[in-house]
Design brief:
It holds the Pfam family GGDEF. By secondary structure, the chain is α+β, with helices and mostly antiparallel strands. It is built from 14 helices and 16 strands.
Length: about 575
């Protein structure tokens, strides 16, 4: 026959639960709940903080972009106004078509005061450059250049572009990046109000890159920050993607859809009568920079929460003493009752409602047991009286002697046996158990204890009635008696619980008998008059050990094995071996 071990998980859980005190379990539960609550709170805080941090970060980036956009608009407005002021200057109106030298000197002075102007020139209405800074392009036709064509119609601003005519004049080295310019053009009229030509100014686009670097340097505290200026069509004009532009610190390509970047964009809107060119300023920063700050915040939340959890566990440990102390008093009182005949009840305990109810129920149970014992004592007293009567009247008649003998046997049976099952009662079983334990201590003669409990017996009573339940109890008692030896002792401890004392039997031999009893009872069909009833039993088995203080310890271990049998499925045998391990069938 193969013995199957009970579920390891069930055994481990039961062992952990039963191996820790109520105080430890309360402290562990409080700490676990606190840690779980803090973990959930930290996770929620991380999600909320990350979203808020990204929103705040995007607002900060928007302010940076807005600052850059305002500086671009302000610079272009100033240049636009300066060119317009020169074009409208009253002193120059008489000389626009007559004295190129005066015009050139005026333009040179303007360029010297503002080096951002790479070239300023005046072209007549036919597109020929009449005067220009440093004489560049004088006599050259610019009739087809966009700035000239737009300038004939009115004030105009041309977006960033390469200067084909000026590039070879301004470049100092063939390896130098091509020049890019922003053009401002104004129509010029003579003293008679007639259109005399167009005043055009080419501003080097390098000033925008310088402005960008200045803005970035003013925001050095923002790690990984990068800034771009985009044209109306989305082309990068300033930034690492711009042609000829220098790379910024830790620069990354601009991609407004990149999920790894927080991006803010602000459009330029012009200023005053400067209409603007539709530029857009974009600022981006890696999400990882924002997440790092959030991670530090969440870490601090969790550390604080863990400290709170530890403090809560400590407080729970201290508070649990108040809760568990009365319960420990009840356990101690019950243990004394099981070992000291003088102890007959437990004190009234207070501390919490359930404990008061338990102590009241235990006191009631002990009173009932006391009443039973009192009945047994009364029966013994009656037996003694009958014995005396028998002694006084022994010579009276043989018939009377036979009657007295029958009465004595009936009273002895009544005092020592359970009236329902016919097995020993607890009082009669106790001397046999104590004698077996004494023999074990003196001569190392082993014995084992079986605790047998009917499965789902309450269902039998509820469904078929208590009379049918009594029939089932009698059938179980009969099955037990038919399987045990004459040296074994069987008793009914109450309800549907039976105890067997097996002398000269270790755990392995006792297991064989227990299995035989279990299978025999499982095969029973009890005819109770209201239908056939089938019943199974769970059995706990324990072999006496040197660690047992008395036979009650052995019985308690068998009862614990019975509890495991019930918890792991019923209709099985569970063994509490001398070395900690359990088996089931």
């Amino acid at each position: 026959m193969i013995r199957k071990p009970i579920s390891r998980i069930t055994s481990v859980l039961i062992g952990l639960r039963d191996g820790t005190s109520l105080r430890q379990q309360i402290a562990l539960l409080a700490a676990s709940l606190c840690i779980l609550s803090i973990a959930v709170a930290a996770f929620g805080a991380a999600l909320i903080a990350r979203g808020e941090a990204i929103r705040e970060n995007r607002w900060d980036l928007t302010l940076v972009a807005r600052s850059m956009a305002q500086r671009l608009d302000q610079t272009m407005f100033d240049r636009y106004r300066e060119v317009r002021n020169v074009a409208d200057m009253e002193l120059l109106k008489p000389v626009w078509t007559r004295n190129p030298d005066i015009i050139r000197e005026t333009l040179d002075q303007l360029q010297r005061s503002l080096p951002q102007y790479a070239w300023i020139g005046f072209a007549s209405v036919d597109g020929t450059v009449v005067a220009a800074t440093k004489g560049m392009l004088e006599g050259v036709s610019v009739a087809e250049r966009p700035w000239f064509v737009s300038g004939l119609k009115g004030p105009a601003v041309e977006d960033v572009h390469l200067a084909k005519l000026l590039d070879h004049l301004l470049r100092t080295s063939p390896d130098e990046a091509p020049f890019r310019f922003v053009d401002v053009a104004m129509p010029v009229k003579d003293e008679n109000g007639k259109l005399a030509g167009v005043l055009g100014a080419h501003m080097s686009w390098s000033w925008a890159e310088e402005t960008r670097r200045d803005v970035l340097e003013n925001n050095l505290g923002k790690e990984g920050l990068d800034l771009f200026v985009l044209a109306r069509d989305g082309t990068v004009l300033v930034g690492e993607d711009a042609e000829g532009a220098s790379l910024s610190r830790e620069a990354a390509a601009y991609d407004p859809g990149n999920p790894d970047m927080v991006v803010a964009e602000v459009e330029t809107s012009g200023l005053g009568d400067y209409p603007g060119l539709g530029w857009k300023v974009a600022v981006q920063q890696p999400v990882s920079v924002v997440s790092a700050r959030v991670a530090a915040l969440v870490r601090n939340i969790f550390l604080i929460g863990f400290a709170v959890a530890c403090l809560s566990a400590l407080l729970a440990w201290l508070a649990s003493r108040t809760i568990s102390q009365p319960l420990l008093g009840l356990v101690t009182a019950l243990d004394r009752i099981g070992r000291d005949e003088k102890e007959t009840t437990v004190p009234r305990l207070h501390g919490f409602r359930e404990l008061s109810q338990v102590s009241a129920s235990v006191r009631s149970l002990l009173r009932r047991l006391g009443a039973v014992e009192e009945s047994a004592r009364t029966a013994r007293d009656m037996l003694a009286v009958l014995k005396d009567e028998y002694s006084r009247n022994i010579r009276s008649s043989e018939e009377r002697n036979r009657q007295l003998g029958a009465d004595i046997r009936s009273l002895r049976t009544l005092a020592e046996h359970d009236s329902l099952s016919g097995l020993l009662n607890r009082r009669a079983f106790q001397p046999f158990a104590e004698d077996a334990f004494a023999t074990f201590q003196r001569h190392d003669r082993l014995f084992s204890v079986l605790m047998i409990d009917a499965d789902h017996f309450k269902t039998v009573n509820d469904q078929f009635g208590h009379r049918a339940g009594d029939d089932v109890i009698r059938a179980i008692g009969d099955a037990i008696v038919e399987e045990i030896r004459s040296t074994d002792k069987a008793a009914r401890f109450g309800g549907e619980e039976f105890v067997l004392l097996l002398r000269e039997n270790d755990a392995n031999g006792a297991w064989v008998l227990a299995e035989r009893i279990r299978l025999r009872i499982a095969a029973l069909t009890v005819d109770a008059g209201v239908g056939n009833i089938s019943v199974t039993v769970s059995i706990g088995l324990a072999e006496v050990t040197a660690d047992d203080r008395d036979v009650e310890d052995t019985i308690a271990r068998a009862d614990q094995a019975l509890y495991i049998a019930k918890s792991s499925g019923r209709n099985r045998v569970c063994v509490d071996y001398p070395t900690p391990r359990s088996q089931s069938a």
